[in-house]
Each structure stands twice: as structure tokens, then as C-alpha cells.
Design brief:
It is built from 13 helices and 16 strands. The chain is of the alpha/beta class. It has two domains: 35-68 and 336-428, Aspartate Aminotransferase, domain 1, CATH 3.90.1150; 73-333, Type I PLP-dependent aspartate aminotransferase-like (Major domain) (Aspartate Aminotransferase, domain 2, 3-Layer(aba) Sandwich), CATH 3.40.640. The chain binds pyridoxal-5'-phosphate (PLP). Pathway: Cofactor biosynthesis; biotin biosynthesis; 7,8-diaminononanoate from 8-amino-7-oxononanoate (SAM route): step 1/1.
């Protein structure tokens, strides 16, 4: 029987959720007790019981303008009134053309050609396919491995999983099935000449078998929320260029201002050969990712076997998503992010500083609109989340990390509220 009243309705829906709906990395039937969201506006999520939570997660890095932004709502409605989707084989449309052109204009120099697909993981698959196809087309089929540093996260489909942190990471379940890649230790926060030399040396030793190096620039996200010195990106650029290896930057989490620069790559002034964007691309409204590459990569692929890139998802270039992405880019172009992100950074630093040295806290770090408290022990996710919710804040701690990446429209008072929520989650741990 269906839901009967407002309260019974929520309880009944949650029972159905547990019975039928998979959640990330969850068992079936569900054991956890998710919070039922009814609506979201600005930086607030409204739960079915009427509670309002300040969103400290931007729906996993994506909702940079908050929820129900009038410009994004309008772009979506306007495009829905025209055409929600058409196949991209043999057809094209203005939203995709304009978005690809704009992305080519705002990304680091040399990135010209844009593949529009439907999720970050698929965007990374496409990046890897581009690198492998281009190496084959250049007559180097032996270059079939990827190199990366440990501590990374690039998605949940198979090739991306193979370049995530191999030990203790989310994908250790798949050891023995995944392609075996070349790993070097995770990059340190500060500049370390010795590390830079080991990085170069590892890549040089395997140069003949590596198609591409793939990394998240400046911030490693879901693999551990670590920050590293941007100069390692220049080291990677040099060694890859010297050996004909492609450099892939996965900016799915770091793109669009999150780290205080428009792209992570901008901290180092480095242009990769291939770059992946997703998450905040549509301001968190719709699922869309973009993989960009240089003319050199595109020409190699196009001259090779098959004469084109071997990929073509059904929802490629979805017009609704492209239109919302254009509206999001237009908001970003207006420039508010450039002051909002440093303001959030100051608020996070202020609010999280007292947690340095607190019981159980191993490290506190802030970069741009990202604040991280690393504990010296695993966090009880349900307990820590509940403690933050009791403070009116939505957080999603994992492993030993309690962290936030709020929407850019979060004001000072709400940033303070988020840091109070983090303090409550720390205390509950
Ligand atoms: N790459 C990075 C850096 C990510 O942070 C993520 C998602 O967390 C992905 C790739 C995968 O994106 P999606 O979850 O949209 O498949």
C-alpha cells in the first residue's frame, strides 16, 4: 500500500528505499538510514520532517551555485520547451556546439576538441581511450599502461578504478581483475626534491609501456582529500613531454574555481594533453562530463585504425545538460566565484583552526572552498553525520575524514555554521 499521510509517508518511503534502492557502496536491502530530502533551495536542503540543513557538500562538489538558482532553472525550462534530447550521431545542436566552443576557450591552452558524455567516470574512460588510441595510431601499441600517483580517485567504472589508490582504496575488491598500472607514492603537500626525482624516475623507467599519466591536479579528492604542491604538475609535464607520454588532468572535482583558481592546472601554469571535467559543469543540475584534448591527440586518433574515437553514448551532448552548463559558465564568467571562494576559504580557516590539536584530530587543511579535518582514527559515519545534522549541517564524512566543499553562494554565517557542524562531528568521533 502507498503512503497515507505526511509522517507515515516519509516512514513508508524510507522502508521502500531500504527494500529497493541501492545507495553508493551500500548493501541490499539497505542497512543505513538515509535522510529523506523533500526540496532544496539556495544552500539549504529541506528534509521531509521540516528540518533545514546547510549543505556542506555541494552534492559532492557539484552544486556550486546552490539549488534552484533562477538562471539555471530558467535555462533548463527554456531548453525543455525546445528539445530535451536528440541522438548525437548524425545530428548536432546549438547547446552542444556553444558549450564545446566555450570549454575550448576557457580551459588551458591547446585543448581544442571536446567529447561530451554523461558522467565523470565515463569522461575518464574517454580520456584513457583517447590516450590509448592515439598511442596505437602512432605505432606504439606497447604503450598500454597508465601511470599515476597513489591516493587518487577517478571513478567507479573499470579503467578509472585501475588508476584509483590500489591499497585500502574503494576498489581493492577488484585486484586481479583490473589492468595493472604504474604507481608512485602519493605527492606530498610541500615541495620535496627527492619526491620529484622519484616521480620522474618511475615514469622514465616505464616510459616504453606508458600511454599516459593521469592525476588530479592540486587536490586529490575522494582518495583522501590531500593537497599537493603544484610544482609536481610541472615535473609531470616535463617528463611526459620528453617521452611522448600524454598527460591527463582529471579536473572533475577541482574544476570551475573550487581550489581558488579556475582550474587546478592554473596553480602550476601547465597545460595537459587531455582534461576531464564534470560535477560542477552543470552547477550540479544534470549529469554531464566533458573530455577535452589537443589537436595532436585528435589528429593521431583520427588518422588511426577506425578513423575516429571509439565511443558514442546514447546521452552524448544532452541539450538540457549543455544549456544548464552554459548558464552556469555565464554565472562563473560574471566573476562572483573569484571573491566568494577566498571568502569561504577565510571562513573555513577561521572556523576550523580551533580544531587543530583537538582530541583525535591528526590534521586540519583548507584550500579554496575545501576544508578538511583528518582524524587519527576511522570516523563512525552515521554518528558523525547525525552530530552535524543536529547542528543543522549536511556533511558526509568517510574513512578518517570530515570535510566540506560548500556552494560558492554560502554566506559567512552559514560557513560558520558548517564549521560548527564539523566540530560537532569531530566531538562525536
Ligand atoms: N574523477 C574525480 C576526480 C572525481 O572526484 C570523481 C567523482 O567523485 C570522478 C572522477 C567520477 O565522477 P562520477 O561520479 O560523475 O562518475
Amino acid at each position: 500500500s502507498g503512503p497515507t499521510g505526511p509522517d507515515d509517508g516519509a516512514a513508508a518511503l524510507l522502508a521502500l528505499d531500504r527494500a529497493h534502492v541501492w545507495h553508493p557502496y551500500g548493501p541490499m536491502p539497505g542497512r543505513s538510514e538515509p535522510y529523506l530530502v523533500e526540496s532544496a533551495e539556495g544552500v539549504r536542503l529541506r528534509l521531509s520532517d521540516g528540518r533545514e540543513l546547510v549543505d556542506g557538500m555541494s552534492s559532492w562538489w557539484a552544486a556550486i551555485h546552490g539549488y534552484r538558482h533562477p538562471a539555471l532553472d530558467a535555462a533548463l525550462a527554456e531548453q525543455a520547451g525546445r528539445m530535451s534530447h536528440v541522438m548525437f550521431g548524425g545530428l548536432t545542436h546549438e547547446p552542444a556546439i556553444r558549450l564545446a566552443t566555450e570549454l575550448a576557450g576557457i580551459t588551458p591552452e591547446g585543448l581544442e576538441h571536446v567529447f561530451l558524455c554523461d558522467s565523470g567516470s565515463v569522461g575518464v574512460e574517454v580520456a584513457i581511450k583517447m590516450a590509448l588510441q592515439a598511442q596505437r595510431a602512432r605505432g606504439r601499441p606497447g604503450r598500454s599502461r597508465l601511470a599515476t600517483w597513489r591516493g587518487g580517485y577517478h571513478g567507479d567504472t573499470f579503467h578509472p578504478m585501475s588508476v584509483c589508490d590500489p591499497v585500502g582504496g574503494m576498489h581493492s575488491l577488484w585486484t586481479g581483475v583490473l589492468p595493472v598500472q604504474v604507481f608512485v607514492e602519493a605527492p606530498p603537500a610541500g615541495w620535496d626534491e627527492g619526491y620529484a626525482a622519484r616521480l620522474t624516475d618511475t615514469i622514465e623507467r616505464h616510459a616504453d609501456e606508458i600511454a599516459a599519466v593521469i592525476v588530479e591536479p592540486v587536490v586529490q579528492g575522494a582518495g583522501g582529500m590531500r593537497f599537493h604542491h603544484p610544482a609536481y604538475l610541472r615535473v609531470l609535464r616535463e617528463v611526459t613531454a620528453a617521452h611522448g607520454i600524454f598527460l591527463i588532468f582529471d579536473e572533475i572535482a577541482t574544476g570551475f574555481g573550487r581550489t581558488g583558481r579556475f582550474f587546478g592546472a592554473d596553480h602550476a601554469g601547465v597545460s595537459p594533453d587531455i582534461m576531464c571535467l564534470g560535477k560542477a559543469l552543470t552547477g550540479g543540475y544534470l549529469t554531464l562530463a566533458a573530455t577535452l584534448c589537443t589537436r595532436e591527440v585528435a589528429e593521431a586518433i583520427s588518422a588511426g585504425e577506425g578513423g575516429g574515437l571509439a565511443h558514442g553514448p546514447t546521452f552524448m551532448g544532452n541539450p538540457l545538460a549543455c544549456s544548464v552548463a552554459l548558464a552556469s559558465l555565464s554565472l562563473l564568467r560574471a566573476g562572483g566565484w573569484a571573491t566568494a571562494v577566498p571568502d569561504i576559504e577565510s571562513g573555513l580557516k577561521r572556523g576550523l583552526k580551533p580544531l587543530r590539536g583537538a582530541h583525535g584530530v591528526a590534521d586540519v587543511r583548507v584550500l579554496g572552498a575545501i576544508g578538511v579535518v583528518q582524524m587519527d582514527r576511522p570516523v563512525d559515519m552515521a554518528k558523525a553525520t547525525a552530530a552535524a545534522v543536529a547542528e543543522g549541517v549536511w556533511l558526509r564524512p568517510f574513512r578518517d575524514l570530515i570535510y566540506t566543499m560548500p556552494p560558492y553562494v554560502t554566506g559567512d554565517a552559514d560557513v560558520a555554521r558548517i564549521t560548527a557542524g564539523i566540530a560537532a562531528a569531530v566531538a562525536a568521533t
